[in-house]
Protein 1
Amino acid sequence: MKITLFGAGGMIGSRIAQEALSRGHEVTAVVRTPGKLALKHDKLKEVTGDASDAASVARVTAGQDAVISAISIADQEGLLRATSAQIQGVKQSGAPRLLVVGGAGSLEVAPGLQLVDAPNFPAAYKAPALAHREVLKVYRKADLDWTYLSPAAVIAPGERTGKFRLGGDQLVADAKGDSKISAEDYAVAMIDEVEKPKHIRQRFTLAY
């Protein structure tokens, strides 16, 4: 498959790129400055583009089988602007799917209580978590085939095991209440969804 990937230089995006390439897919990495990606592969192509510009998004996603957004924008206004541009651009290009690296903050930890609203949610992560919650609302109103993958409460570089549990809008945690996933296994779930769609116009999540 041909996949356009925004945010390929990030912690999660780089692992998504590697997972896709390891399965034989062709990856077009959209970058602002070519030549800075550490990952090199004969099926990896870098193109210059802007995730916040709909015309640019349309140009780099034309003819692709799937588009993955792993962008990291700190402020809510900027993230929402990029979200709108990506939705518009993908619709213009005719790419059939847009998959999004989302946040965990909007996952429910109790009936009517989302993780970001819990008393013990870290203050340092609150602003981006709230931004991603707003982004999910935008996707839920979007007229295209989107998929939003929320990570576990804790995601970090680690081991690729291929073994994890999936969920929907509720946080997935183990018997001790821990909710963790490696970035490598997150990438596995994302490319699994690209290859065999099960969550069209839905959010899903995962954890060990």
Note: Helices lie at 11-22, 54-61, 76-93, 126-140, 183-195.
Protein 2
Amino acid sequence: MNPLPKFPWRILLCSLLLWLFAARLGAAERAPQGVQVRIGTILASNESEDFDPKLSRMKNQLEVIKYSSYRLIKEESQRVGWRSNAVFEIPGGRSLVVVPQEYRNQRLALKVRLIEGEKPLLDTTVRLRNRGYFLLGGPAHEGGVLILSISAMTP
């Protein structure tokens, strides 16, 4: 003898399955595996007409900055967890601290701080597409300026 009719149990089971499916989709949107962050340090100057072929995918964006020479002088990649710090050493005694904040609509939000010694030079949030990049004009360096290419991807 079953005191409850079968119909409400089916509704309850279907509701539970829908809730689990929605929770799984929400977890996928947060991308819990972490983020692969890559920082490229580019020296832009007017000392020559050289263009580093490693920078070919961003040539159009770099040329807007109006220098005649672009050379990749350093590139570093780190896997970092959500809301954890990744520290990248930038030429000239500077550090770039990147903290992945969120992942929504195929876009990553990264907290970015450029620090020289104890002095913060920049503190902002950058939003970019998953597997995309952002160019950040930086400080003067060796007769030119540093440009930081910030890219990030989550699996």
Note: The chain has two domains: 1-30, 33-153.
Protein 3
Amino acid sequence: MSVPEQLSGVTVKLKANVYFDGKVVSHTLLFPDGKKKTVGLIYPGSFHFNTDAAERMDILAGSCRIQQDGETAWSTFSAGTHFTVAAKSGFQIVVESGQAEYLCSFE
């Protein structure tokens, strides 16, 4: 699945999702078929997220390193790549510099 340049036919929640003192900010996108995505920015730092649903994180710009809960290995992802996280799990994400822009799809 490639990520399009733009998404059409969505409802955007104007209230931002702000985490970690503003170092992670996203907006929720709602689709007519009931699917939900978020699009946002992650500023430099190290952050842990828990998941309710399975997630696919497409990196749109910048880069990050992630470590899935229960694993010791770290993986690096840059623009044009993605990673998935299982439901009822979590991951640590690190952005070293700049910002990582992402699109998160909930499965």
Note: Residues 11-106 form a domain with the Jelly Rolls fold (CATH 2.60.120.10).
Protein 4
Amino acid sequence: MKRVSYQFCRALVPAAAGWLVSLPVVGAGAEPAARPGLSEPVGVGDYLQTLGGLLVVVMLIFAVAWFMRRMGGLQAGPGGVLRVLSSMPVGQRERIVLVQVGTEQVLIGVAPGSVRLLHTLEQPVEAEASQEAATGFAERLARAMRRMP
């Protein structure tokens, strides 16, 4: 075990003593007299004010995140011309995506720095089948929870 140096203890004891003297006495009726060179003690109200400010900032962050998720960020809404029907990973960073453009459906390959047309479908895939295959995590979790006893 490492020994604490004598100089460190000599510096720490007066600092700790000064801190203890500056603490307010709980239950004392009168305010402590101001001493020159010592700052005013921190009270419970100061802690509550800091905690309240922190909670407001955290709530604001969550509100902005909820709003961005609800509005879809900066993406086009469902009324747009393009719609991703399904997506499937084929590697660590490569995907095959089925996209509907108007009434036409195309299969594209997406990789870092590259997007390629793989195939244009002559007969569109039914929307119900493609949406069922591309269910999100929330839907899968809800189904799994319903199956639990």
Note: The mean pLDDT is 75.
